[in-house]
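Lecture 7 notes: from sequence to structure.
We start with the chain below.
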Amino acid sequence: MTKFKLWISDIDGTLMNYDSSYTPQMDELIKKINKSNTKLVLATGRMFMGAQFVADKFNIKTPVVCYQGAVVRTKDEILWQSLINNELGKEIISYLREKKVHTHIYTNDILYIEDDNKEIMNQYCNGRGTTYTYVKSFDEVNINGFAKILGVINDKKIMQEVKQDLIKKYSDVLTIVQSSPIYLEINNKNASKGNALKFLKEYWNLADDEVIASGDQDNDVDMILNAGVGICVGKNSKELYKVSKYHCKSVDSNELVDIIESLVLCE
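Predicted structure tokens for the same chain:
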């Protein structure tokens, strides 16, 4: 019998491509996991509806970790959360406006934008089970804490400039990480996939060595560090590659499938 009682995994770039496609082998693997004694938990930067959309697609019944680890919840109940307070969130919005960064804010499980760029929003929402609400100004929104603020930045130089500015000023109160080449994720300092995993380990009374984790970006590093075994998919993050025990070339290589079948399903 496997020692792993929990497999926690990022979605985009790990279980699926960024266009939400996935291999038949991954589909079969998840069906096997669902029938096994090992829980599969999705841990993603997606908002709750986008995370739950994937969970429903694969018939996964466990809670989801969403908003980059800011929220752990089921369809009916928030189990754990760590939000950006209103005042701090508004400061970040003001800075991103100055930098002309396309910005998403997430509050009350709704995604709001004030720049209705169809190309960006179609890329973000299509195939992900995600909707959004356009407002003329974020000032119109009744904010009840921010689960996440997202900057969409296509220019590498501007991405690095904005990321470093925010880290320099807010690293003591915020977590600022890239989840893809164009997405900059901004969360409460305590909101991370690693802290969400810590909560789940306590919730289910699991030891580190009973957990296996997989991801592909910088935002997955602390999740890997809080698991017994880490798997890095692709080479998008040098740090993640360094701290992971196993490495996969890409989503489509099915190497992740092979590793999970060997270590978790013992096939």
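Points to note: The chain is about 35% helix and 20% strand. The chain has a mean pLDDT of 95.
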